[in-house]
Amino acid sequence: MSNEVIVAATGASGMPYLLRLLEDLKAAGVKVHFVASGNGEKILLHETGKNMEDIASLVQETYDNGDLSPPIASGSIGFEAMVLVPCSMNTLAKISVGVEDSLITRLAVVALKERRKLILVPRETPLSDIHLDAMAKLSRSGAVIMPAMPGFYNKPTRVEELVEFMVGRMLDHIGVEHGYARWEGE
Ligand SMILES: Cc1cc2nc3c(=O)[nH]c(=O)nc-3n(C[C@H](O)[C@H](O)[C@H](O)COP(=O)(O)O)c2cc1C
Best substitution site from 48, 90, 130, 135 to test ligand 1's pocket, by max atoms within 8 Å of Cβ? Predict the structure, then answer.
């Protein structure tokens, strides 16, 4: 199990996934270092009514996306996994070409070079060849591409169940136990 993870929110739709993931990681005793892009903060407020102060109560530490100097930005400081949820196609494209112009992109590029777990949860539709090429390149570099695509085979009746479906898959990849529904056959 991962005891220390980085969670980043960028400017895509899907903030309910972020909130539930942070709540579950806190409940599991996982230390979370959190950073949001400017558009991430705006969409967080729009979709959930929460701001950075609300998030601060769920995590170990929050960071400024414009500050590249905190110790976690260095490859020599260990974190076990990084999750970008939601991940904008803008940020995904930057990471795929090695751009490190913000704390979020720097941390993701470090995760790839240090062979740490990098989980990207993009949400965009439809996808262009440019999006698909960037995702394929990141996948070949070791990132886990986990589009926000909840399944319907457990016959969800509440939005929360769709959120739990996705968060369960993220927790699986971070290595944190959860009790969310899995496919158990007909
Ligand atoms: C309300 C709103 C919703 C958006 N939703 C998405 C989205 O679902 N996926 C996406 O890739 N970009 C989306 N965008 C566009 C990104 O926010 C935009 O590309 C921005 O430059 C991303 O910046 P960041 O990667 O630094 O967070 C949205 C923008 C707004 C204003």
Answer: 90
